[in-house]
């Protein structure tokens, strides 16, 4: 059977369905808010409205009972939530924060905004999350926190990372943007670290357009996050804040009533949406296991995976063709997804370029004319990003990892069959790729 990449007939000739979780409930909730005329009720001052309007409070209260945490603090994005978390922990110039190189850029760049230094550690080849041994190697007396990402929807190694953090007196911020309802030993992602940060941007499991939620069981950190979200400096005096006043320079990271109303509807849909992802992945994996050089992702014992992406490992030695050539051929058999046409077929070689290879780190582009915090006069301990080589993430990115999103709810059995059949067709005819 001639491969589509060589001019053969494609497996799939119509677009895949859009992933759309927004329906009548959200429409009704938004109209209800619009009719009140109150689209946000936040005030950057010490009154009841410091905590936001009724929809924000309703949503936060639903979120905290759902995820079984003491505090849920809405923000306008995960990125803002990560900034709040770093600020809440009192992190500042010269402090070091250990981060994964294989994540969305903000999990590392947010550290720089506070003048602290992102220190990259390698990832685990099975879960793609931070590798504990690699983290341990880069801990110094300046390390203040670890940002552990539940990448693709698998919980980070909270047992060993948390133990390591505790031993060294450092905190863990969990970036759980890709992992709502992932869990380890019955605890939801988000509650595994000291602070967890969800994303509600359009691409996530559930969304409010843009948005995010910080969760924590720590009263003091929660209070600091609420202050930083909402003009801390204008509030601390009138509330007579008694805690550590450092880093309480605030922002406007507030969520509107409209987004919060949508969020409450979306949260109700989350369990079903995650379940369907798990079912779709399991169906695809059942079909793909016949391809010997593809290895399906591990889910560690005691964990559930939320499958933001479906990562697949490609064994180049067994396959006898390079991964990139194989993926190009699979993509040529398939079609784009409605609403995301510009992105091409939703399948990639690897995920993102390891972050230390971004020009930000390669060229040490800091802040202002004095290039804070990278100028030598600041005497900070700057990692040698230029010659950095973290072997697992490099190999993963260059040779072994395939990620795709063609398992989202809305995909019919026929759609999933087309995806599996594209892999199988290319595997069976890989001789054509030589
Ligand atoms: C989406 C995402 C973010 C950023 O989320 P925003 O809400 O867009 O700021 C951060 N980290 C990870 C791992 C993500 O997937």
Please describe what this structure looks like.
The chain has 434 residues and is of the alpha/beta class. The chain folds into 2 domains: 4-21 and 272-351 and 393-433, Aspartate Aminotransferase, domain 1; 24-266, 3-Layer(aba) Sandwich (Aspartate Aminotransferase, domain 2). It has helices at 24-36, 54-67, 78-88, 106-113, 132-138, 158-168, 219-229, 232-239, 257-288, 316-319, 323-333, 359-362, 391-400, 413-428; strands at residues 71-75, 96-99, 117-120, 143-149, 171-175, 183-184, 187-188, 195-199, 212-216, 294-295, 303-304, 310-314, 347-349, 401-404. The strands form 3 sheets. The chain has a 7-stranded mixed sheet, with helices on both faces. Helix 1 (24-36) runs antiparallel to helix 9. The protein is globular and about 75 Å long. The structure holds pyridoxal-5'-phosphate. Pyridoxal-5'-phosphate (PLP) binds at residues 77-79, 103-104, 106-107, 149, 175, 177-178, 199, 201, 212.
| Mean model confidence by pLDDT | 97
Give the CATH H-level superfamily of the largest domain.
Answer: Type I PLP-dependent aspartate aminotransferase-like (Major domain)
CATH architecture of the largest domain: 3-Layer(aba) Sandwich
What spatial form do the alpha-carbon principal axes imply? globular
How is the main sheet built? 7 strands, mixed
Beta-strand content estimate: 5-15%
Distance from N terminus to C terminus (CA atoms, Å) equals 15 Å
Number of helices: 14
- The proportion of residues forming helix, as a percent range, comes to 25-40%
Radius of gyration: 23 Å
Under CATH, the topology of the largest domain can be stated as Aspartate Aminotransferase, domain 2
